[in-house]
Write a structure and sequence with these properties.
Helices cover about 70% and strands about 0% of the residues. By secondary structure, it is an all-alpha fold. The chain has one domain (about 1-40, about 50-185, about 185-355): MFS general substrate transporter like domains (Growth Hormone, Chain: A, Up-down Bundle), CATH 1.20.1250.20. It is globular.
Length: about 350
């Protein structure tokens, strides 16, 4: 439940990225307030001559706003966060997540939608805190991994389902407010030098994790929006939501697999994910995939790889770290996925610009 609640807001913001930007586009191009409310997120991009039906701003903008605060927190917090009680951190995370739903749902300009940073702050601080907390309990890492995977499915599926049922995305985000509020032993203090030494030893885990997340989020926020099939029975926005949901299903399955299978060769997962990214990049450029059904399968597989990389990385860190170092190691290594995601967001901008100019 902690894993689900912690990642829920972050996932919903990424699932809503296409709608968030579409809403701002319609708001900026429509003089009448009533007309803007009527089309709320659902207007087509009729002024766009690109064959990719592009938003003027890449969904990577939402991704960067959703990940940069997390990255900053994960880089700095492990060195000082031990001075703040876990209970205070959890309360702060809940307030930040709720704030993100409120502020984004009532936003009317792109810059206001960047207030998804509150979801990022909540998710980033919560993730490093709960990962560190797992070291004080027996066999809970699998539960945390499964919960964070469940957040992906619940967030993406609920958002897609409620909007598909006819609710405005603004109303859907407000309904999500219910989630953030559902809600002994200590290790010896480490010196700054000791922490730097531990980080050096963690690089063999951090690099593969960063690479796998770079590849998958380059797909999710750089390519997914461009993998549009006009003759498919789903609209562009609906296709994007299905992609996000299937990705999260794959993540849920693989993050819940720790009790059944453990994968030590993390680089294999990273390289397979890079192959996925290259394949879909060429698919966007040359449009050789026959149907969205093929993309659905690839996206599901992508989620399986990403989830497996995450849960196995932290499992082996917890097993191979010394008792005194384990709490810090679990928190510090969580920066790996955020580094990869942030770099993917930066890489997605020129790709979006290039393809949308065709």
């Amino acid at each position: 439940f902690l894993g689900l609640c912690n990642n829920f807001a972050y996932v919903v913001m990424l699932s809503a990225a296409h709608d968030i930007l579409k809403n701002q586009e319609s708001a900026n191009s429509t003089a009448s307030t009533s007309a803007t409310l009527a089309v709320d997120f659902q207007v087509g991009n009729s002024s766009n001559s690109s064959r990719y039906d592009c938003n003027p701003v890449s969904t990577a903008a939402v991704l960067l706003a959703d990940i940069v605060p997390t990255l900053i927190i994960k880089l700095l917090a492990p060195f000082v966060i031990h001075k703040m009680a876990y209970s205070i951190r959890v309360l702060f995370c809940a307030i930040m997540a709720a704030s993100s739903f409120l502020l984004v749902s009532f936003s009317s300009a792109v810059w206001m939608s960047i207030l998804v940073i509150f979801a990022s702050i909540s998710s980033g601080l919560g993730e490093l805190s709960f990962l560190a907390l797992t070291v004080f309990f027996s066999d809970v890492l699998g539960g945390w991994g499964s919960g964070t995977g469940g957040a992906g499915v619940a967030g993406a599926l609920l958002y897609s389902g409620l909007t598909q049922a006819g609710l405005l995305p603004r109303v859907t985000l407000l309904i999500m407010l219910v989630v953030p509020f559902s809600d002994g032993q200590t290790s010896g203090l480490l010196t700054f030098t000791e922490k730097l030494h531990i980080i050096k030893g963690l690089l063999k885990f951090v690099f593969p994790l960063a690479l796998v997340y770079f590849a998958e989020y380059f797909i999710n926020q750089g390519l997914m929006e461009l993998l549009y099939f006009p003759k498919f029975f789903l609209s562009h926005a609906e296709q994007y939501r299905r992609y996000q949901t299937l990705y999260q299903v794959g993540v849920l399955v693989s993050r819940s697999s720790l009790c059944c299978v453990k994968i030590r060769k993390l680089w294999v997962l990273s390289l397979l994910q890079v192959v996925n990214a290259v394949l879909l990049l060429f698919a966007v450029g040359y449009q050789f995939l026959p149907s969205a059904w093929v993309v659905f399968i690839i996206i599901l597989y992508e989620g399986l790889l990403g989830g497996a990389a995450y849960v196995n990385t932290f499992y082996f860190i917890s097993k191979e770290s010394e008792d005194r170092e384990r709490e810090f190691s679990m928190a510090a290594a969580s920066v790996g996925d955020s580094v990869g995601i942030a770099l993917a967001g930066l890489a997605a901008f020129p790709v979006h610009t290039y393809f949308c100019s065709l």
